């Protein structure tokens, strides 16, 4: 695979049990480069790839195509009634952007994983695991923090690219679940994309068959990557 003047070597993993659909096997196209430019990585995003740490990957499963790359056109997005309620109900919170991870980030992540995702592949949380999926060596994400008075209650890890934002991962205080902080953090990223004049927010993969991964269609209009390219849903 080659992009402009930079060749890219792509490998494929062995099959392994899927983390999201119990009856399926997962397989990934992977590439790991010491240095990838932001424009090149954005091209890969547009082809359906994602990153975890320095590894860029894309599902290439033998018998399943449930993982649908999804993105939001930022200038077309309008919050739904439910999302407007989420924004209104969280007006007491403050959000800000920091460029470096802190000890508070990891403490919140550890609590989130160990309470909310005991049945997932990231349990139990560890510092090594946390650093592995954030640090790449060639791209430094930003951290969008949510604060309730003097307490950090949410973090969104986000990549800033020339024409888009890419949502890497969000975590929040489990005891604040009534605030819908996961949704709030996506809404903040949508707002930030507009402020930064970015055209898209990449949300990763929509998996309709997975209860934990089927919420991304709530942000309309959205685009799904198909064999014919990105297809946009009508506004609701």
UniProtKB/TrEMBL annotation:
Domain N-end rule aminoacyl transferase C-terminal intervals: 105-225
Record flagged with keyword Coiled coil: no
EC number: 2.3.2.29
Listed SUPFAM superfamilies: Acyl-CoA N-acyltransferases (Nat) (SSF55729)
Reaction(s) catalysed by this chain's protein: N-terminal L-glutamyl-[protein] + L-leucyl-tRNA(Leu) = N-terminal L-leucyl-L-glutamyl-[protein] + tRNA(Leu) + H(+); N-terminal L-aspartyl-[protein] + L-leucyl-tRNA(Leu) = N-terminal L-leucyl-L-aspartyl-[protein] + tRNA(Leu) + H(+)
Keyword Transcription: no
GO biological process: ubiquitin-dependent protein catabolic process via the N-end rule pathway
InterPro entries xref list: Acyl_CoA_acyltransferase, Asp_Glu_LeuTrfase, N-end_Aminoacyl_Trfase, N-end_Aminoacyl_Trfase_C, N-end_Aminoacyl_Trfase_N
Superkingdom in the source lineage: Bacteria
Gene Ontology cellular-component annotations: cytoplasm
Subcellular location(s) of the protein: Cytoplasm
Residue ranges of domain N-end aminoacyl transferase N-terminal in the record: 17-85
Keywords: Acyltransferase, Cytoplasm, Transferase
GO molecular function (one): leucyl-tRNA--protein transferase activity
Main function: Functions in the N-end rule pathway of protein degradation where it conjugates Leu from its aminoacyl-tRNA to the N-termini of proteins containing an N-terminal aspartate or glutamate.
Family, as annotated: Belongs to the R-transferase family. Bpt subfamily.
Protein name: Aspartate/glutamate leucyltransferase
